[in-house]
Design brief:
The complex is a heterodimer of chains A (97) and B (404).
Chain A: H1 2-17, H2 21-47, H3 53-96
Chain B: H1 2-18, H2 21-34, H3 39-63, H4 67-110, H5 118-131, H6 134-145, H7 149-157, H8 162-168, H9 178-192, H10 195-207, H11 215-243, H12 254-258, H13 262-265, H14 269-300, H15 314-334, H16 337-363, H17 366-369, H18 376-402
Helix pairs in contact in B: 1-6, 1-10, 1-11, 1-14, 2-9, 2-11, 2-16, 3-9, 3-10, 3-11, 3-16, 3-18, 4-10, 4-14, 4-15, 4-16, 5-14, 5-15, 6-14, 7-11, 9-16, 9-18, 10-14, 14-15, 16-18
The chains are: A mainly alpha (97), B mainly alpha (404).
């Protein structure tokens, strides 16, 4: 019985950890879209005086850190093509810094 | 007056154990990614937590034992040692996440790196416990915690589609991203099931000298206190669903979560979010630090009470004096408070059965509860939820560690 539990847990863990290139590309695209929307919203909020320059800067820094991690993960599983959308948003964030 | 004080204990327990860094993060994340679809997880978890809290209070009212004290007496020292090791590890990690949450709140307002605030927050926390009494901790957190009603105001201001929200209360299969949906569900349940909360509540009931006549009030307190936390958490999900979701913003950082307050509150949005996050996390830090002292003192039979001067219960004071800097150290070493939070929530779900099942045994023991024992339906309901959360956590923790 114990072996059955261990085997089930191992299968579940492995199935969650092995990432296909398609999944990597989809996740990367999702992260890129989310950060792109965040940057657009933050830029509008800064221009209308709703957020302080320091908070805007925090968002940009956070976006760069997060996108860098996403790009690394995407590149490892899905190659440069998977990481391309993330790189594009990171470049946009870099210009805002 | 006593009734108000009782309800305050419920609200402070709710702010610490229910509405903390984990609940705010998971609720914002769930709303942004799945709209109103995960409200049923919150509703189910809330019912379970209300029932567990009521049980811990009833145990204190009838037997005058705190939870840890009773577990040690009923299950023996060996089981208590196992519980002690597990709870100390999890509580320290949760304490780190909460201290980190307060530091992040200050970072959101000032723009200064959150790590600079960690020692200041830790010192303020220690000082308040050192010089304060249980009433100050309880009433101060309850009153300050009312600021989290800003989430309810914001949600109301946005004019939510109530029909859609009501549909979210019925369990439904995910419309997309099934794996993420269930992982978020574990996160929500993990954020609700914080085992330290139960012992804190029972210890608070003993500090407040509750007795048999307080049993009805205990029920009201558990429902109102946890209900307060639930209303706030539901408001966060709905606000996030109405502001972040439609714009395609997912919550990967506290900065993104804070943006949910911009639409209803304009330039006050970010400071208000920071105030809510900071207050909730500070309340939770007080609770976890005190619970660590309760845990050791009740388990080893030392003098304990937040109402005593530190020299009257020196070992009680030493525990939180050591735990708080250790928690602060962990935030600085481990980094990213949001990740510490996610991990500690999964550990909470793993630890829950270790404390909940002995509680169920105690709640059915005539020696402790006399005629105030549990009903079968409650036993089955709580056991089922805890077992499910535990099984999911077994899978969730390795996934989290391996980054799957």
């Amino acid at each position: 019985m114990l072996r059955l539990y261990a085997a089930t847990a191992a299968i579940l863990m492995l199935s969650g950890c092995v990432q296909s290139p398609e999944k990597a590309a989809k996740d990367a695209k999702q992260a890129a879209d989310s950060w792109s929307a965040t940057l657009t919203e933050a830029t509008q909020a800064r221009n209308s005086g709703q957020i302080s320059p320091s908070f805007f800067q925090s968002i940009v820094t956070q976006a760069l850190t997060s996108l860098k991690k996403e790009a690394q993960t995407a590149r490892k599983s899905g190659g440069d093509a998977a990481a391309a959308p993330v790189d594009a948003v990171a470049a946009r964030a870099g210009k805002l810094e | 007056m006593k009734s108000l004080s009782n309800v305050a204990l419920g609200i402070v327990t709710s702010i610490g154990g229910f509405l903390d860094v984990g609940a705010i993060a998971t609720a914002a994340l769930a709303g942004a990614a799945f709209g109103f679809q995960m409200l049923w997880v919150l509703a189910l978890g809330t019912l379970c937590v209300m029932y567990l809290t009521e049980m811990a209070g009833r145990l204190a009212c009838v037997s005058h034992h705190s939870l840890v004290d009773a577990i040690r007496e009923r299950c023996g020292f060996r089981y208590f040692s196992f519980l002690l090791v597990g709870e100390v590890l999890v509580d320290l990690l949760v304490l780190a996440a909460e201290i980190g949450g307060v530091a992040v709140a200050l970072h959101l307002v000032t723009g200064i790196d959150y790590r600079w605030f960690v020692p200041i927050v830790a010192f303020a926390l220690w000082l308040l416990i050192w010089i304060g009494t249980f009433s100050i901790v309880q009433n101060g957190t309850s009153v300050l915690g009312l600021i989290t009603l800003a989430f309810v105001v914001g949600m109301w201001w946005m004019g939510p589609p109530w029909h859609e929200a009501m549909k979210g209360l019925l369990p439904t299969a995910p419309s997309h991203d099934a794996a993420r949906y269930w992982f978020t569900a574990v996160g929500i349940i993990g954020a609700l099931f914080e085992p330290f909360m139960l012992n804190f509540y029972a210890s608070g009931a003993i500090e407040e000298k509750w007795s048999l006549k307080d049993i009805p009030m205990n029920r009201v307190t558990a429902v109102l206190g946890m209900g307060f936390g639930a209303v706030i958490a539901v408001s966060i999900v709905m606000l996030s669903a109405m502001t972040l979701g439609p714009r395609g913003i997912q919550v990967d950082s506290y900065e993104q979560a804070a943006m949910m307050m911009l639409q209803p509150f304009g330039s006050w949005g970010v400071p208000l979010f920071a105030a809510c996050l900071g207050t909730a996390c500070f309340g939770a830090s007080l609770q976890v630090a005190l619970n660590l002292s309760y845990l050791f003192s009740q388990g080893f039979g030392w003098n304990w009470s937040e109402n005593l001067k530190p020299h009257e219960d020196a070992r009680f004071a030493i525990v939180y004096t050591l735990a708080i800097p250790l928690g602060a150290f962990l935030v600085i070493i481990l980094g990213d408070p949001l990740q510490i939070t996610t991990f500690s929530m999964a550990l909470n779900a793993l630890l829950a059965p270790v404390i909940v099942f002995p509680l169920l045994i105690l709640m059915n023991d005539r020696h402790y509860l006399r005629d105030y024992r549990n009903h079968m339906v409650g036993n089955v309901f709580v056991s089922a939820i805890v077992v499910i959360a535990f099984l999911i956590a077994i899978v969730a923790i390795p996934l989290e560690v391996l980054g799957g």
